Amino acid sequence: MNQLVQAFTKSILAGDVHSLMELHSSSIHSKIDNFTFYEKIIKPSMYRIGDLWEKNQITVADEHLATATLKYLLATVFTHQEALENHPKALLFCIEGEHHSLGLELANEVFKEKQWNTRYLGANVPVKDVLTFISAWRPHAIGISIGMTTELTRLKECVEEIREHHQEIEILVGGRLISNYTLDFLEKSQVESFNDLLELDAYLTDMSGQLLSQKG
């Protein structure tokens, strides 16, 4: 698996979509399902690229190319049945100051696998814009990604402000930071946190069933 991650990372940094598709195809033939591919191949590659950027071993341009390449791969390879209008809705974003959005891209794929209607706002989104979108679209859940300790205070402020206006909405937080730290303030704010995409998948399975049964 480590060799596959290394090959995947190299192809992302080179912008080599053809090689990435071949790697995905060979993985599917090896009975690796999409969620395992997200968790065991794409996510470690993404983290490796983030580490290289933080250590100045790749440039901002390299990271942008990697992001664009992965987005193209996700759009081309991972297709989903269109969610129905009465299916649950999720708003996904990275907090203001957080510019690493690849993990959120993968979370968005998990939501879509579960036939959620999603709105993906991307990186560096001010909370005032989030609140405006919530009021207009009324999502059932909000997904927030954070990877940097420097943004912890901003995450706390963001969650508190959303909770002040919307007590009923499920707030889900994930990202590399969640895997490494226990954030007590999230539990106090009734926020669900996730270490990986498999945990998110299991949670959404339960949540989707509850929401659809309420509508029925």
From TrEMBL:
<dbReference type="InterPro" id="IPR003759">
    <property type="entry name" value="Cbl-bd_cap"/>
</dbReference>
<keyword id="KW-0479">Metal-binding</keyword>
<dbReference type="GO" id="GO:0005829">
    <property type="term" value="C:cytosol"/>
</dbReference>
<dbReference type="GO" id="GO:0031419">
    <property type="term" value="F:cobalamin binding"/>
</dbReference>
<keyword id="KW-0170">Cobalt</keyword>
<dbReference type="GO" id="GO:0008705">
    <property type="term" value="F:methionine synthase activity"/>
</dbReference>
<feature type="domain" description="B12-binding">
    <location>
        <begin position="87"/>
        <end position="216"/>
    </location>
</feature>
<dbReference type="Pfam" id="PF02310">
    <property type="entry name" value="B12-binding"/>
</dbReference>
<dbReference type="InterPro" id="IPR036724">
    <property type="entry name" value="Cobalamin-bd_sf"/>
</dbReference>
<dbReference type="GO" id="GO:0046872">
    <property type="term" value="F:metal ion binding"/>
</dbReference>
<dbReference type="InterPro" id="IPR006158">
    <property type="entry name" value="Cobalamin-bd"/>
</dbReference>
<dbReference type="InterPro" id="IPR036594">
    <property type="entry name" value="Meth_synthase_dom"/>
</dbReference>
<protein>
    <submittedName>
        <fullName>Methanogenic corrinoid protein MtbC1</fullName>
    </submittedName>
</protein>
<dbReference type="Pfam" id="PF02607">
    <property type="entry name" value="B12-binding_2"/>
</dbReference>
<dbReference type="GO" id="GO:0050667">
    <property type="term" value="P:homocysteine metabolic process"/>
</dbReference>
<dbReference type="GO" id="GO:0046653">
    <property type="term" value="P:tetrahydrofolate metabolic process"/>
</dbReference>
<dbReference type="InterPro" id="IPR050554">
    <property type="entry name" value="Met_Synthase/Corrinoid"/>
</dbReference>
